[in-house]
Amino acid sequence: MEAAAAAAGPEALRCFSYNQDCTSLAIGTDTGYRLFSLNSVEQLDQVHESNETPDVYIVERLFSSSLVVVVSQAKPQQMNVYHFKKGTEICNYSYSSSILSIRLNRQRLIVCLEESIYIHNIKDMKLLKTILDTPANATGLCALSINHSNSYLAYPGSTTTGEIVLYDGNHLKPVCTIPAHDGPLAALTFNSAGSKLASASEKGTVIRVFSVPEGQKLYEFRRGMKRYVNISSLVFSMDSQFLCASSNTETVHIFKLEHLTDSRPEEPPTWSGYMGKMFMAATNYLPAQVSGMMSQDRAFATVRLNFSGQRNICVLSTIQKLPRLLVTTSDGHLYIYNLDPQDGGECILIKKHSLLGPRKMEENKENDLRPPLPQSYAATVARQSTTPSTSSMPGYSEDGGALRGEVIPEHEFATGPVCLDDENEFPPCSRMLHRGQP
């Protein structure tokens, strides 16, 4: 859920990303990075600002914790992990080529290079696995389930077709290969439970949803037929009821994941109903490509942006007890829309925030490490706070990186386990340097 960007002006926006449960927004600029809390429509609270690292082009925050991962243009091969509340560096790793993307949940941290992927144990930052010789992946396209007990990883399996490799990040082994599209992939995303995987190709006309880990196609949505588009954002709502897609066009599409044939009551016999059944029966005799196109669902809700061609990312979140669509753009703005979860239709713009320029720092009132529990859009109560789990997570696997000749280098590891609480959360440890394999 991130995007690289560039904008003219006194301060340039270089990247922006939402955290795993869509409660926080991070931006990277030519002077550093900023973190915002997304718990209010009217007010955008800045949680943290750092000007120590210029030209940040990757910034990822772990849920609402104090752990943030930063990569800058000055050192594109180095990943820095910070505890931003304490202003300390936890560790840094260096790789053989530029870092293209980073994904993380409470169990794993994924570093994606153009032709390799590194899997770290986030509790102590040990390198568990190196996936070498992946197909050339110039954009660093990959997805990681935010459910740490279900840490599936997805990445392109081909440069010419839309093949998806599904990989088990907990047990460090491939699961299956999904022939998702005819053309190369452009977008991948898991739902919050890690049970569904959505994808789009470079054509951007068809979006498909597959079951995890089986890889069976569950849904197919068509966002357009006349023109190809560049999908810039693909994301599920936290309750997995909706799937949102944005592109370089002025329209954002929101699809509803439901099987209409299973939920519709029996209709009284009418001429239109009779013809509808005849039409559906006729599709059984048509070629698979034609009949499949006819049965695809259209968008449940849409947004007409007042611009096109700008890089943007979207998320579906619940703010102040109501479902919202958030759109962040490369010119440094956050747009918030209302979403009608019952009737859909055109979403209404209710607030626009500027992300750049001077901003008053707010006290951090967030509940650290708020668990990513799926929340129904029909919910009428706010997300409840819970005590962070203290249960231990599986740690380092001695043979985790021994397959295919990968070598796990010797590090100065943290002397004790890393605790997920505010006082001892990710304490600073000796710098851990790793040189990626060529």
Overview of the molecule:
- With 438 residues, this protein is mainly β.
- It has helices spanning 260-263, 271-282, 288-294, and strands spanning 2-4, 13-18, 24-29, 33-37, 45-50, 56-61, 67-72, 75-83, 88-94, 101-104, 108-112, 116-121, 126-132, 143-144, 152-156, 162-168, 173-181, 185-190, 196-201, 206-211, 217-222, 231-236, 242-247, 251-256, 301-304, 312-319, 322-329, 333-338, 345-346, 348-354.
- The longest helix has 12 residues, at 271-282.
- It is globular.
- The two termini are 28 Å apart.
Can I get a quick summary?
The protein has 438 residues and is mainly beta. The chain has 3 helices and 30 strands.
Mind sketching the topology for me?
Layout: E1 2-4, E2 13-18, E3 24-29, E4 33-37, E5 45-50, E6 56-61, E7 67-72, E8 75-83, E9 88-94, E10 101-104, E11 108-112, E12 116-121, E13 126-132, E14 143-144, E15 152-156, E16 162-168, E17 173-181, E18 185-190, E19 196-201, E20 206-211, E21 217-222, E22 231-236, E23 242-247, E24 251-256, H1 260-263, H2 271-282, H3 288-294, E25 301-304, E26 312-319, E27 322-329, E28 333-338, E29 345-346, E30 348-354
Parallel strand pairs: 25-29
Antiparallel strand pairs: 1-2, 2-3, 3-4, 4-5, 6-7, 7-8, 8-9, 10-11, 11-12, 12-13, 14-15, 15-16, 16-17, 18-19, 19-20, 20-21, 22-23, 23-24, 24-25, 26-27, 27-28, 28-30
